Amino acid sequence: MPALTQWRRRLRWLLGRGWSAQDFAARYAAGGADAWGYRNSPQHLARADFILAALPAERFERALEVGCAQGFLSERLATRVDRLIACDISPEAVALAKQAGLTNVDFRVADIRRGFPGEAFDFCLFSDVLYYLAPREIDAVLDEAAMKMRAGGCLVVVNEWRAGAKGLTSPQYSFARLDESADWRRTDARRTPFGEAELSLAVYRRV
Known about the structure:
The chain has 207 residues and is α/β, with parallel strands linked by helices. It has a single domain (24-206), classed as Vaccinia Virus protein VP39 (Rossmann fold, 3-Layer(aba) Sandwich), CATH 3.40.50.150. The protein has helices at residues 3-14, 21-31, 42-54, 72-77, 91-97, 135-148, 171-180, and strands spanning 60-66, 81-88, 105-109, 121-127, 149-161, 184-194, 197-206. Strands 3-2-1-4-5-7-6 form a seven-stranded mixed beta sheet, sandwiched between helices. It is globular and about 45 Å long. The model has no long low-confidence stretch (mean pLDDT 95).
């Protein structure tokens, strides 16, 4: 990551603002159709299976995937939902995701800190997203998630995390906020090793 980009990101973080589209632009510019190395990775295929196995229902009517990147997980979620809105802050990522031609998936460019792309969801997935946000941004996003979710709807939060990671908000912050909220009730929690990191997942039901 160029030094100027790193400096700008650190300054935003000090001001209580998380990562921007610019922070991801270089990776998508250089990474081609698989910028994160998901598609040919047995580890990431197992990660997708881990997430899908934790979903509390076989099928959902209206779903939101936040941080869809280039649509690797969206393609698998599409088999479990009637309609899926999959959004990402990166226009480059969304343009590539659309090439899959999934008829029941609406890929959108969206920064969820400025509002969710839709409402009345019965399922919402945050996969490796929330730790890119500053704590106060996480607070606002989770509050809006509660407003946009149907009663009884399901929120799944997944995080890959390495001890000592810097420039990110620990996943424990999001889990603690949800656990203490009167809007949500935790129904499941799972952890599994993920290379040198750990993958943590929690399922919440909208009260």
